[in-house]
């Protein structure tokens, strides 16, 4: 049986992951409006991954005999100034999620909840990949200056994400 403190924190993380999906979907929609189909596709995939993250926490709480309690999801920002702005904000958001995951690890360690600590390791590794992936795009955008052929090429590259 899962402790209430852990259950509450994991439910809060479901909300964080669902908000991430919402945020990335809003960005995907704006990229689509900007005729950057590759960026839009990349963000849609990102949003789908966030839903999968939320479901991992959901199933884990259920498996441990806990109670999933869903909270209201706040609305994401509706508009951004540029493609780089969106990518820099997604990086900042991923850094925030990494911090949330690390806080969960600290809590699980304090509570001696070894199963939760073990489950969270997947997320610790995932966050390293997530931050690296977004950082690469942010850096490329800086290089190409968000214009012309460079942007077109990057859009094509992002459109190939599985
Ligand atoms: Fe669920 Fe992008 O971290």
Describe the structure.
With 162 residues, this protein is mainly alpha-helical. It has one domain: Ferritin, CATH 1.20.1260.10. Helix content is 79%, strand content 0%. It is built from 5 helices and no strands. The chain has helices at residues 4-33, 37-63, 83-110, 114-144, 148-159. α1 runs antiparallel to α2 (37-63), α2 (37-63) runs parallel beside α5 and α4 packs antiparallel against α5. It is elongated, with a radius of gyration of 17 Å. The termini are far apart. The model has no long low-confidence stretch (mean pLDDT 97). MU-OXO-diiron binds at residues 17, 20, 50, 53, 94, 97, 130.
Q: Briefly, what is this?
A:
With 162 residues, the protein is mainly α. The protein has helices spanning 4-33, 37-63, 83-110, 114-144, 148-159.
Topology:
Layout: H1 4-33, H2 37-63, H3 83-110, H4 114-144, H5 148-159
The protein binds MU-OXO-diiron.
